[in-house]
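Let us practice reading a record.
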Amino acid sequence: MSQTRTRFAPSPTGYMHVGNLRTALYAYLTAKHDNGSFILRIEDTDQGRYVEGAVDVIYSTLKENGMNWDEGPDIGGDYGPYVQSERMGMFKQYAEQLVEKGNAYYCFCTEERLNALHEEQKAAGETVGHYDRKCRCLSCEEIKSNLEAGMPYVIRQKMPTDGITSFDDLIYGHIEVDNSELEDQILIKTDGMPTYNFANVVDDHLMKITHVIRGSEYLSSTPKYNLLYQAFGWEIPTYIHCPPVMKDAHNKLSKRNGDASYQDLVAQGYLSEAVLNYLLLLGWSPKGEEEIFSLPQMIEIWDPSRINKSPAIFDSLKLRAINAAHISALSDEDFVRLAEPWIRKVVKSEINISLLCQNLKPRCEILSDIPDRVAFIDAMPEEYDLELYKNKKFKTDAETSLTALKALEPKLEAVENWDKDGIYEACQTAAAELEVKNGWLLYPLGIALSGQRSTPGGGTDIAAIVGKEKTMQRVKAAIELLSK
């Protein structure tokens, strides 16, 4: 059995769409699960859509996600070049081979004739764009004369006019298409350049690709691909067509419509590991209940036959949940490294970053949530709703909170070793003297120090994070506010 070889062949047209990254992931996993090779090929023949710097985006996105390629434009390999525009000289000879075999033909129809044909089709209510095969049966003399006269031409694939063409897809099963429905597609354009479909087949064969993994939108083109493989006498690869990624039940996720790219998600505070984990599950089902996986674990459990046929709807809530699980699995050091830039967007003062991050980590779903949660550290509101002091669990309200804070003020002022333990001990002493539970005192302290119900930690943690000076200023301010 030949070694598994898969390829990811993106066009450099901008940011990395999540559907493209999912295709890359599935191709990578298929290769690596079988100890095969993952090839990167850049398909840049559509210069009208080429975006400067987009190739670097492809490189950086794959590398950030640990999907290192075995062959590609930057590292070479035995089957290069790996940039399609650098392979342009080889395709015409393959098309001419098909002409010689009777599987393709020269078409000399002008653009004017084709436009007139389309207008006739439109007027007759027919499918517009269908070629009428006028040049399919030209005599050898006519063809020779036209070529010698320098007439512009394309080379078209000569499709069978009857019977069926069938192919097998790992996901969609056995598919048959009536040959009468197949268009005599163009293989070589008038400028001598290949069409996308033709170049794909030739490149995949020459690079010995064993598994072609792509979106289900290419299912309709696959019979044409198979006829090309058969005409050349080449081995047909295993086809794996993936369902589309949908924004909702009716609309595909599309970067053209402003939907989030991989780069957008990372900029929003999602971890690359979490995005990749989510994309794994976006149209694929693992065995068992576990859904949180690292890339090495994905390689181990991968089975492409478990890809679903149904369209996959992008679920932001599930992505958040998966991201939260990956954040929870981070080491404390890694979380501090990732969280501090987000903290410093709003907190410029010196604080106990380590303690803040210990409290943030179990409460953080995405990193971009952090600024709103910690903004109070530098910018405590002068006034806030006193209803915040009401809490059924701790049996507190504005009146009890005033009593609690008045009792806490001198105890906190007396703390010399200002850390979490020292602060907590002072609060315990105050609670014991008042004969109340700790929460009765600590809940109001958290509100007084933050002015918000949800905080990254309890009252003693917040006091340790913001420091003694801010703590005393805010406790005094809260007592004044509650005394009005």
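A brief commentary: The chain has a mean pLDDT of 93.
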